[in-house]
Structure prediction request, 292 residues.
Amino acid sequence: MNAPVRTTVREMEDSYHYQVMRRALDVIDGAEGNLTLDALAGEMRMSTAHFQRMFSQWVGVSPKRYQQYLTLGHAKALLRERFTTLEAADSVGLSGSGRLHDLFLRWEAMSPGDYAKGGAGLEIRWGWFESPFGPALVMGTEKGLCGIALAAEMGPEAAMDDLRSRWPEAEFVEDPMALRPWVLSAFGAEGRVEETPLFLIGAPFQIKVWEALMQVPSGHVTTYSEIAKAIGAPKAVRAVGTAVGRNPVSFLIPCHRAMRKSGGLGGYHWGLPVKRAMLAWEAARSEGRAAG
Prediction:
């Protein structure tokens, strides 16, 4: 794996923060009851002041509050308090052509006929980048980003094999600098407000599911059954779950916001710790904005 493109100190810090947070997940899960701030910082082998400052900078809330977001019970709380019906999301203008989860996205889909060709005739550029959730393998065509794989849990080789296998007939060219402006915008680099184009390469049913996912606001969640209803296939919950899992553009197409009706997290293709981290990160930032 080539070294990720490191463009700013902030991006390197964000990626480092995820690694620390990932360790914190294990500490919190292994503890009996809530840890005090001092105890949690001690388990992380960090000073209390540094630990508090780092997490407050990253998500905008204190480590004590963030610990609540990281607990397994937070998933059920999200369903109670921040459940989104996709009809409601659509009514407030959250759609594929509008402002989605704090990002300006526009997207178009490959035609079913072209998709069936396995990417033949496509040139897909790729590169490694830092992200708030660890190393990210990003791929894109001239039309927009088509793949973002998060490698913190599965590893770089598996992430590369995963994305390349989706479009086996495409030509892959390493060219991170061509993707860099889109990536900076996608991961919310400071001062970047330009549009992030997506090029969805999938089967028609998958694209319907991914379109529905893009209507779930940041800091909120929905369920697989809600997505099935929204795309006109209420009995296809299992198929919806499969399509959610096959989403190649992690974070931007927010499959991490889809949960089981029971309050269980469900699966996550890039690793459940990443899903928990994303949900906590988004919920904390939403709370910070509301408080501000």
